[in-house]
User: What shape does this take?
Amino acid sequence: MNEARSIRRVLITGIHGSGASYLAEYIAHNQPEVEIHGLARWHSTTAGDNLAGIRDQVRVHEADLVDFGSVFAVLQEVQPDAIFHIAAYANVRASFITPQTVLANNVLGTSTLFEAVRLAKLNPIIQLCSTSEVYGQVDPKFVPIKEDAPLRPVSPYAVSKTAADLLGYSYFVGYQMPIIRTRMFAYMNPRRAGPLRHGLCRQVAWIERGLQKELVHGNLDSVRTLIDVRDAMEPIGWRSPGAARARSTTSAGRSVLAVREILDRLIAHASVPIPTRCDSYLLRPADITLQVPCVDKFENETGWQPKYSLDQSIEFLLTSGGGARTRPCGRWPPPRGVNDDTHFPRRIRNTRWRIKFLRKQGNTLAAAKTDEKRCK
Assistant: This one.
């Protein structure tokens, strides 16, 4: 994985997560000689569906990134040659509701990891997964966005990732730790409970099956640059250890379009008409746009090129294992806003109560029974 160093053992934080699991799969399939270890919190260590295809190739360690002792113990046991730090609370809109939780987890978790590596006297290559959210609302004169563009985060989540990003630079300067900061732009991920997968895509699947009457959405005018998760995880897992250390790099695709255009393409893939409506509940207090990156530096350093087109990514988002059409039940939405179920009675998330809820809402019994079978 790196010409200068032999990578025999890797540690992936948040390995059960939507992005990290694809990274683990990529390494397992392309570097079978590499030992894959992962960190997972106690309440996620049994929720390993995302790792179902490679479970026998991965060893998951129970630890919490805000608990120094557990992280230090895992590092001493594993002695990794490379660490991919992907774990984070990554819901932008929810971060406005629970800002302190997001800040504490993302900032202290990153600090704990770096400090544990330092005190354990290890020297692994560390890839720090950052985000394009750190650039915030970009001045048009900085578009396309390069790595030296000003960092102007506008959400608590973006602030937490900016702090983590700068911690990576600080530990390189102060302790010469080989840390690579990769600022990932938006990627399309069937396993991720985000606006595309669980918002737009899942609603399309529900409407196709007669379980919902209209698609509700938030801001459709934001301009994003999208990449397929299978492309996104390749440069993280394969290219980053060979990149220049302590430098920030931009990982992104080439499909630049407004969220409205994404929705139009999803509707074009639908088997039935999809009525839509804007819901103010889904609008962020502060949103960003013009997320258009310059990826020249990353591509020149790594030779990476995306393989999947936007239409292929949308089809993957809808139909792959874990995609919106294959697992359309997921978490039942709250009365307003399909991206967050925290305001909905817990019992409704149980399949039996879901069926009763469907009947009360006027859906047919046949549709309810279909939903029950799908949720098993």
In short: The longest helix spans residues 99-119. DSSP finds twelve helices and twelve strands in the chain. Confidence is low (pLDDT under 50) at residues 328-352, 358-376.
